[in-house]
Amino acid sequence: MKRLCLYPIGLLMFLLLLNACSPGETPPQEDDPKEQDSIPLDISLEQMSLQDLNDEPVRTAISRLSSMGGTTTSKNMGSDLYGFTVDTSMVKVITHDDVTSYTFPIKRDRNDGSFFENLVLQRNPSGNLQAFLVRYHLKDGIRALAEHGSFSFEGRRELFSLDLERLDVGIVEKNDTCYDVVELWCHFGGTDHPAGEMCILEAQLTGDDRLFYKESMVCLIGGSGSGIPGEPDLGNGEGGNGGGAGFEDPYIITAPTNVSLYEFQLKEFASGKLSQAERGYYNSDSNIKNIVDGYLIDNGVTNLAMFKAKNHLSLGHDLSLTPQQFVWYFQHRDSGEVEDLKQYLQDQSNSAKAKAFGKESISAWMDNGEVDFEEEIIYDAELLDCQKAILQDLKNTPESRISEILNDFSGETQGSRDYGWRVKTAYLGSGKENAKTTFFLTIAETKINNDRMKDATDLMLAATFIHEAIHAWLGFHFNDDPNSVYEEYEVYYNQYISQQATPNNIGHDVMADILRSKISNALKAYGESKGYALDDFVYEALAWSGLTEKEGPNNINNIHPKFVEYVPNPEVRSKILNILHAETHNQIGFGNAMPQGQQACN
């Protein structure tokens, strides 16, 4: 924790004030608390978001206070006392001896601007948690300061006790009492302001006396008013016992924070620092805005913080990151992966292709994948290991065309094209296809459907990998290398560019007409490498995997005309279908076809 040194009240003055405060007699309210300068004490202050707090009862209290909204009523509390919203993006956590307080900025719709409020949750040495609403009545408004992204104000304090017993997060001893409200402040830049983490960090470095505290004696507010002030009505309420050395019991320690000020600064950031495109992206989703706002507030909305936030938003917009992708990127903004991504984009002059690859890289990292920016490849880190081993073995097949296709994705051989292929295990439903390949500009993504393939043999998985690799390869080949399209693919390329058929059906025609025998040869080479001694018909049947049906209107599949053309005998077609069924499900197929491969994944 970060340490700071503050100065307490003179004991005599405090005792005089305390003796003057009783259930029947409240002390006069000062317009502004007095600065104190006395015995040095060790106190720490940190700023963080609610999600970073390691105090579950505090998190529970915030959740329950939020759910109470404006619905709570009692004879001692105004019906609208709880009608506020808690800003959880910045919590000031103050520790003094065995006392820890949590100060949250809050806002309510009916605030006329004459006051602001903080929620203070305080855990005392006994472990009990107390909740207070501190209301600051402004004498001359709030003055925003450039120093530390803070603000300055003068005015009267008002104190309400919130009912934690209803929230079931602690036991509070109730007393009618007055509290010593201790506020941490900072001397810096010519104007005093509530202390924040930046002021404390600087004080640690300089060792100066910029940190001090103000305190005021405030008695709890009673009555049944609305909770929205006209003139403060000092009275008796329900409170609790404080504790700890240095200040006299009972006391509350806090550092004022103001959400309205941050709202003003954040609006200034959006309107004055961001381009129209960046501003549109910033406001496009609450997840994007909230994580950026939290970062800015945590860093005092300084010029440096705004500059960095602007750059992050610019990258998010340029890469068209989804809110989930941007949140992941922002949370990992200082990681080695993100630094590599930024360097890659710079080296590629932020080309459209590089941006698309960058977006897919973030998706890969979110799924625990790996990225190689030098080769522009996303590897198969998202495959089950048992499936990955089969794909790796296929890259070494002696069948030249299939080997060429597979290695055009690996970047491991001289002259390979370094196409981007992302292969992952997915769950698409048992009634769906064995696998599905989708294109994202510079990346083809293949999902192996484990709902259907969980029991498949290694031979069927090998056939599926080859089939999907050809789909991905043809898409890149037609799009990226139109001037080097192999002559044998020319008719299919013309169909592709004229959109005479879907890419899926074109790929199936290419495989059936040109590559089927090469697929069979590659599968045979794989099988022999595993010690299988099988009839060639098994490999020929496996080469038909994915080619026996054709996508028709309304997603209705019919028997593929190429299947009928090349296998005119219905009995032979049935034998092929039986083999495919046996290898897919690793069980005896129709016609007593026996699986010939071994189950790939147990």
Question: Which features would summarize this protein structure in a list?
Answer:
602 residues; signal; five-stranded mixed beta sheet; 3 domains; alpha+beta; 22 strands; disordered N terminus; SprT-like domain-containing protein
Q: Over all CA atoms, what is the radius of gyration?
A: 35 Å
How much of the sequence lies in strands comes to 15-25%
Low-confidence stretches: 1-30, 70-79, 167-174, 222-245
Summarize model confidence as the mean pLDDT: 76
Percent helix range: 25-40%
Tally of helical segments: 19
Which class do the helix and strand fractions yield? alpha+beta
Tally of strands: 22
Distance between the termini: 50 Å
Shape estimate: elongated
Taken together, the total number of domains comes to: 3
Major pleated sheet? 8 strands, antiparallel
Signal peptide: 1-20
Protein name: SprT-like domain-containing protein
Keywords: Signal
Quick synopsis:
With 602 residues, this protein is an alpha+beta fold. The chain is 38% helix and 19% strand.
